[in-house]
Automatic annotation (TrEMBL):
Residues 1-91 form the Chorismate mutase domain. The keyword Isomerase applies. This is chorismate mutase. It comes from Sphingomonas japonica. One of its GO terms (molecular function) is chorismate mutase activity. The keyword Transport does not apply. SMART domains: CM_2 (SM00830). InterPro entries: Chorismate_II_sf, Chorismate_mutase-related, CM_bact, CM_dom_sf, CM_II_prokaryot. Its EC number is 5.4.99.5. Keywords: Isomerase.
Length: 92
């Protein structure tokens, strides 16, 4: 593999990483709004039924995309746990 080819691959990875960061930022902006709504209306910070449906949906999407469903579940669980932590802080 030439250095030019490697550099091209790395540039693509860097672009994808940047897109992921911006997508996560947008997702957390929306989940923060959800957290404020829940806090204002006395709703619990976690919704286990929704979480399980989301995990099942993302596992199916991962499988369709040839991505390891176990990895996608761990990734989503990490995000969900962080969102719940934010929602709990908003209730304080």
């Amino acid at each position: 593999m030439s250095d030019d080819a490697l550099q091209g691959y790395r540039q693509s990875i860097d672009n994808i990483d940047a897109a992921l960061v911006f997508l996560l930022a947008e997702r957390f902006k929306v989940t923060q709004a959800v957290g404020r709504h829940k806090a204002e209306h006395g709703l619990p910070p976690a919704d286990p039924g929704r979480e399980e449906r989301q995990i099942a949906r993302l596992r199916a999407l991962a499988k369709d995309a040839d991505l390891d469903p176990e990895f996608s579940e761990k990734f989503l669980r990490f995000i969900i746990d962080e969102v719940i932590r934010h929602h709990e802080r908003l209730r304080e």
